[in-house]
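User: Structure with uracil, tokens only please.
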Amino acid sequence: MTDTLHLDKRQRAMLAEMGVRVWTPLSEPVVMAAPEPAVVQAPADEGYRFAAASELATQAIAQAAGYEQVARQMPPTAPAVKAAPVPIIQRPAGIDQMDWSTLHATVSSCQACTLCSTRQNTVFGVGANAAEGEMPQVDWLIVGEAPGEEEDQQGEPFVGQAGKLLDNMLGAMALSRTGKRTAEGGGVYIANMLKCRTPGNRNPKPEEVAQCLPYLERQVALLQPKMILAMGRFAVQALLRDTVPEVEGTPLGKLRGRVHQYQNVPVVVTYHPAYVLRNLPEKAKVWADLCLAMAHLKGAE
Ligand code: URA
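Assistant:
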């Protein structure tokens, strides 16, 4: 279990890039320095209040290190923001039979919602190098929300500032966006819940999510990842809508610190890198979430 926390020089450098400090007591497993035990209020549009900064980090790391679970007391939460009900999902014909390249082509020509008229490119995803049209073999699926301006221009997810942070996070886990799965595991695919940019990066509309979700669903069914990392409120709500009652009214902070399921694949919830860039102390919590995911994967082997 503790193997996941044996960080090499490169991983430590990546963590330093992320702004997460670690310390290594002699002959003890690596434990992240406890962040300030302050209660941090999220901006209003996030709709939730965070737990004490040190608390969930400590818990996930304790679990990752194989320690007993630390008892947790959540501080009172702000009233949850209720999202609009999500319309019935429209499944594109034949999607359940599509292979990877057919699915990719279908997404590229999708006109199921109005986003097709404002996008430059669809953004299907990126991952472990595979031959043209072949599906990458991966253990990890990272799910973000929707392409931003740069992603829309380049047709690749997470290529802007948030993507740099994501790359550093992956580096700290000894993973990379194009690294192949080896005998030790690994291999990452990065996708978004929405395959098209929303105008001005506005929040996705329920009908856009409903139209696009079947594509992600099929990506999961084909990739069969061993772990999904859901980043940000909209990705989390889309993935957990069938398994977490009232997920749309549940603060993201309350969904962290445990392992959920989507299509029988474990899901760990964390903050979106773009949000973390605006709230740098939250990096420690994201690292705690990554430790939880790594520990779960290791335990499942
Ligand atoms: N944010 C996302 O959620 N996805 C991207 O691809 C880029 C930014």
